[in-house]
Amino acid sequence: MVPAPAMQSSAQIVTFPVLDAPALLTDTASIGCPLQPDDLSHPQPARILALYEWWMSRLLQLQAEDIKRAAEAQLDQLEHPEIYREAMYLGVFTIALNQLLIPSGVHDFTVRDLTLPRPDRLRYILSAVINFYFFAEEQGERVLRPLQDEMTELAQEEVALIEENQKLRDRIEEETARRLENQAKMAAYRPEEERNTEMMKAAHRAIDDHGAQKRALKLDCEELRRRLTDLQQENSNIDLAIMDLRGQIISSPEKLRGKIDEMQDQLNREKEMFQETEVKERQTQSKINALTQYSQELNSCIRILDDWSVDVDKLRDAELRLGEHEDHLRNLEAEQSDLKDRIELLERRISNGREELTRMKDKMERKREAAKGRKRDLELQHAASVEEKRHLDDEAFKKNLEAQAVEQHIRDMYASLNTELDKGEKAFKRIKEQITLYSIRLNKALDSINELNALDPEL
Description:
Elements: H1 5-11, H2 21-31, H3 37-41, H4 45-59, H5 64-75, H6 81-104, H7 112-115, H8 119-248, H9 253-454
């Protein structure tokens, strides 16, 4: 049995003010709760159940359909769910409602508060729920302040992202302009590069040809030098022979004269060959000089080609850098797209946060004004209660005596009610057992009837 209001203060500590009927109606009307004056004076189970469902939907976001589904899930495990349907729903509803009432300070809520509601218990429970609701609303400012700080941080982050986005856009524009300029330069320089490449290949071929000619001329020059050396050696031998002949003139002048003539002829032939060799040497020397000059020109061409190869390497490096810049530009474009998406997301979040902040501010202002009004009303009620307490202190002794008598009467009623409840539970168990027995018998009878119907009739 639920203790009377006089016993509640001694059984547990009440951490919230128990409001009277006008204050309850005023507060619930400001909140939007569908509480009527008749609900406080003559509470009905259906109306009280609807009120509790409204509070659970408001504070716990738990709908009546969710509770019904949970109760149906429990009923599926029983053999005769129709018998326990209403009791199961009330039990699940009580468990769900205690999730709201226990944080509110009500720890003694039972099914009797739903099936047999009393005005004093209803005021007690609604006062706890309303106090918890206002406490949660006041605590909302603590949640609002971090939200405001987060909005400030988001605004700063938005400004930083906008600046970074602008820098990236400027950089992309510079890279795009530089890329277009490089493309124009590359397009203008590409024909000249192709011509230089062809000229380089032709010069290399000419260098190879002249190198072969130069090697052949060197071989000819060496052959001529060897021939000159041989001729000089023969000339020396001839001089020696002439000296010998001069010594032999006295002994055999005629024989010597014939030999001198032969040697003179041979000398003339050698002189002619030597003159031809000198002509060839001069021609070869002129060719060597021409080849030397041509070699110098080829060396200058090689230097020019080396410079061109350096320019080609620079162009290749420029092409590589251009490719890297293009890849970097594509990455920057992808980052720009990501930043645009992020900025749009942040803008939506900021817009939603601003709207939520505006709603919260308006709500807090309304709650603050309502709280101020309630505070003034409570101060007036407190002053009236103090005056009333002074008058009621004189009657307290009489009321205590009457309360003791009423308490004894309630205890007697409680004992008799417990006896009746025990009898009702025993009767319910007997009825349940009889229903189970009847269902078993009925099933057996149906089985026997089915068996008889299955047999062929005897004629």
